[in-house]
TrEMBL record:
Domain Gamma tubulin complex component C-terminal stretches: 509-852
Record-stated family: Belongs to the TUBGCP family.
PANTHER family given in the database record: GAMMA TUBULIN COMPLEX PROTEIN, GAMMA-TUBULIN COMPLEX COMPONENT 3
Localization per Swiss-Prot or TrEMBL: Cytoplasm, Cytoskeleton
Source organism superkingdom: Eukaryota
Organism expressing this protein natively: Salix suchowensis
Spans annotated as Disordered: 768-793
InterPro entries: GCP, GCP_C, GCP_C_sf, GCP_N
Protein name (Swiss-Prot/TrEMBL): Gamma-tubulin complex component
Major subcellular location class: cytoplasm
Length: 859
């Protein structure tokens, strides 16, 4: 700048100061005139003050917009009610802004901004004693600026309310800033026994788990501490303690990793634990890189406040706290996970870590997601291998599917199960059940069915789900893809399994065969079998040969429509003689069994076949009772009493005979009515209805579990409706007492008929010629009859013995009738209170005409 321009600027500044002082309501003390003297001390101080402002580097906090500043000043005037001044300002600004070219001001907004802040300071200094209060920030009345004078003046300034901030100036002719900085450095050195560079270096050591020179680990407080004997400010001590938290967290995480990796491959570590340690180690590697950068910066000395720091990367405690903000969050989270997972493994560990991923902080969420991708990698690989290959690669017992060695027939029910403790929270219970069933289906096909078609099915499922069968195709965060893969695989493999069961192993045909033979649905076969084994089964149980019974079974098959069944089905039907006790007859120990081989024995297990055996024994007893009543009816033909042989008997004996036969016939009709309706109910309302429902459920079954559930429901329905359930135990006992009474009636009916036949023979013999009678009497003496027969001692003796026999039989039949009535009423009285609705329907069938209800008027 030329000397002429400098002089011009100096003159302009003097004129500006002169005008400002002349407008001061309190004129300077040196000159009471409106125009101040240039040699006056107040004028000189104000001029010096103006030059310091102009030579300073004031940086406004607003954008350099002249129009905006002018508009702000104008708005302030209008707000205070000075509209005329606002209009004058607008006119002057328009002239000021329109003037361009030589002699004009380029930086117009700076001039306006300067005038604005001077005006604001002027308002604040209206009550000030001198012109230096125009800007109270920089008081220049006193040339001797010692430390004490500055402090006292600053205190007085605060009392007067001047707290508008500090204007930093770039030029300090009196080196005040340098003096202040020097004093500050000396003060810091007096208060700190250890420099900040040394503390920073110690903190960096601590963050690597190494004790520093002054900051060391204290086991008593379980943390890093700065010795109390070291003289540092309290703020510095607090800062060091906060920064050392990162080192304490690092020590915990590093110790966990070392402990786990030192014990691997222990069973309590597992692959998931190893993956967790690897993920933590990866995070620590990034942490180590950060520490390396910080250590490089820590080599640079910390500059003084007065020194320029724009081109030097140094590290202070405050800067270190900013650098450590994000690593501390991550390390704190890793330490929490370490404490949580110390006693966990496998799926339980993955689930516990997943719970901490539900966080609103994006940094924490992304960190946990990256960590879980490493941790869950072995777990998802186990799922993929189990669902697509049926392989349980779990040597450390980490998977939520647990297998155990069992026999082939127990593979489906007992071979595999869910371990709820190892089920991670991001896999739902229904999805886990489907995963279990899919892998179990593959193993069932491979082990029990000797089938390999599932491999192609698994490949198709992976393609349909949009993934592959390769390792690593699934990972954390892909739960939807996992569920899609499991659903597709389960759908195809379950369908293939049912096709194998229905087509190759003919499951439906075997179920029908069990119904026809064990549940006595093949009528002609059952009737013929009863006819040919009845005589043998009437013998004591210990005298019956199972080989002979097997031969009779084979004869019954060849003599009925059963001979046209599949030979494989007939080969499975066998005779089984139950354990017998003293006094047991063949009827009590005879039964049929069906040999269900692999894989059918998965459905027809030993317990299931035991229930079938119980149903068979019940139905066999019912058929035996029916067969006994049919046999009694055959011996009680009505034409036996119309024989001419009885016309010569006394009228009283004949009436007694007819009465006894009629009583026997009435009892037979009552028993036959009961047995017929009971058998109809069992065969049609129970067996056929249950079979129909079972057939429908077999058609809609989607997997083997559905098939097993349908069969269990079918078997349970038969047991409950057939009075074999636990809730019908008393009813079942009453029914079997009735069966025993009916069989006892059959023996009495046989005795009665045998006696009548013998009486008929004796009566016919008495009408022969005397020669023939003599001959007959000799034969009778030589060959005594069985107990209950009569000797030919003459007609009178014959009629007497016949009367006694008929009287005894009538009395016994009457006792049987009364006992039967009591037992039947007791049985019927229990039916209405049964919980199963079909048992109530049985009561309706038995008492359709309300005959038994009328016998019990109190009910």
């Amino acid at each position: 700048m030329e000397e002429e321009d400098q002089q011009k600027i100096l003159d302009l500044v003097k004129e500006l100061v002169n005008r400002l002082l002349s407008q001061n309501p309190k004129p300077p003390t040196c000159n009471p005139n409106p125009n101040p003297n240039p040699n006056c001390p107040d004028f000189q101080n104000s001029l010096r003050y103006a030059f310091r402002i102009l030579s300073s580097r004031l940086t406004p906090s607003i954008a350099p917009d002249a129009a905006a500043i002018a508009e702000s000043i104008k708005r302030g005037l209008a707000t205070k009610g000075k509209s005329s001044q606002a209009l004058t300002l607008a006119e002057l600004y328009n002239k000021f802004a329109s003037k361009t070219g030589p002699g004009s001001i380029n930086n117009k907004w700076a001039v306006l901004y300067l005038l604005k802040i001077i005006s604001e300071d002027k308002k604040n200094a209206q009550n000030a004693p001198n012109s230096t209060l125009l800007l109270p920030n920089l008081g220049l009345n006193e040339l001797d600026l010692s430390n004490e004078s500055r402090i006292s003046r600053d205190f007085k300034r605060r009392e007067k309310g001047y707290d508008n901030g500090v204007l930093l100036v770039s030029k300090d002719p009196e080196n005040l800033l340098e003096i202040a900085f020097r004093e500050f450095v000396n003060l810091v050195k007096e208060e700190n026994e250890v420099s900040e560079e040394v503390l920073v270096r110690d903190v960096l050591y601590v963050c690597q788990g190494i004790d520093g020179k002054y900051v060391k680990f204290d086991a008593n407080v379980d943390g890093y501490v700065l010795s109390d004997s070291i003289k540092v400010p309290r703020a510095t001590r607090v800062m060091v303690r906060k920064l050392c938290e990162l080192g304490w967290l690092f020590r915990k995480v590093k110790g966990y990793i070392s402990d786990i990796m030192g014990r691997f491959p222990a069973e309590d570590v597992g692959t998931v634990g190893q993956a967790f340690c690897a993920a933590l180690q990866d995070e620590l590697s990034d942490y180590y890189r950060l520490l390396a950068v910080l250590e490089a910066q820590a080599m640079n000395p910390i500059p003084l406040v007065s020194e320029s720091t724009s081109s030097v990367n140094y590290l202070s405690l405050r800067r270190l706290s900013i650098w450590f903000a994000e690593p501390t969050v991550k390390m704190r989270l890793m330490a929490v996970l370490v404490d949580k997972c110390r006693v966990l493994r496998g799926g339980a560990m993955a689930g516990a870590i997943h719970l901490h991923a539900r966080h609103g902080d994006p940094l924490v969420h992304e960190f946990m997601r990256s960590l879980l991708q490493h941790v869950c990698s072995p777990l998802f690989e186990m799922v993929r291998s189990w669902v697509l290959e049926g392989e349980l690669e779990d040597i450390f017992a980490e998977f939520f599917v647990v297998g155990q060695p069992v026999k082939a027939e127990s593979l489906w029910r007992e071979g595999y199960r869910l371990h709820a403790g190892m089920l991670p929270s991001f896999i739902s219970q229904p999805l886990a059940q489907r995963i279990l069933r899919t892998g179990k289906s593959i193993n069932f096909l491979r082990v029990c069915c000797d089938d390999r078609g599932w491999a192609d099915t698994a490949t198709e499922a992976a393609a349909a789900a949009g993934t592959t069968t390769r390792r690593g195709s699934l990972g954390y965060g892909e739960t939807d893809a996992l569920e899609t893969l499991v659903v597709e695989a389960a759908k195809r493999i379950d369908k293939h399994l049912l096709d194998v069961m229905y087509t190759r192993y003919k499951f439906k045909e075997h179920c029908l065969a069990i119904k026809r033979y064990l549940l006595l649905g093949q009528g002609d076969f059952v009737q013929y079998l009863m006819d040919i084994v009845g005589q043998e089964l009437s013998e004591p149980a210990n005298t019956i040969s199972s080989f002979q019974m097997a031969g009779l079974l084979e004869s019954a098959i060849r003599s009925s429509n059963a001979q046209y069944d599949d030979p494989d089905i007939l080969d499975r039907l066998r005779v089984k003689m139950l354990p017998h006790g003293t006094g047991d007859r063949g009827w009590d120990v005879f039964s049929l069994e069906y040999d269900a081989r692999v894989p059918l024995d998965t459905v027809f297990t030993e317990s299931v076949m035991a229930r079938y055996l119980r149903i068979f024994n019940f139905l066999w007893k019912l058929r035996r009772v029916e067969h006994a009543l049919i046999g009694a009816w055959k011996t009680m033909k009505p034409n036996c009493i119309t024989s001419h042989s009885f016309t010569k008997l006394q009228h009283a004996v004949k009436l007694q005979l007819l009465s006894t036969l009629r009583r026997c016939q009435v009892i037979w009709n009552q028993m036959n009515h009961f047995v017929t309706n009971l058998q109809y109910y069992i065969m049609f309302e129970v067996l056929e209805v249950s079979w129909s429902n079972f057939s429908n459920e077999m058609e809609v079954a989607k997997d083997l579990d559905d098939l097993l559930a349908a069969h269990d429901k079918y078997l349970h329905s038969i047991v409950e409706k057939s009075l074999l359930g636990e809730r019908s135990h008393s009813l079942y006992k009453s029914l079997f007492v009735l069966f025993d009474l009916i069989l006892r009636f059959r023996s009495h009916a046989d005795r009665l008929c045998e006696g009548i036949y013998e009486l008929q023979a004796r009566t016919r013999a008495s009408s022969l010629s005397s020669q023939d009678n003599s001959k007959s009497r000799r034969q009778t003496r030589d060959d005594p009859s069985e107990p209950g027969s009569w000797f030919s001692d003459g007609r009178k003796a014959l009629e007497q013995r016949a009367g006694e026999f008929l009287q005894n039989m009538g009395r016994e039949l009457e006792e049987i009738s009364k006992e039967y009535t009591v037992l039947l009423e007791g049985f019927l009285s229990q039916l209405p209170v049964q919980q199963h609705v079909d048992l109530k329907f049985l009561f309706f069938r038995l008492d359709f005409t309300e005959f038994y209800s009328r016998l019990r008027p109190g009910t």
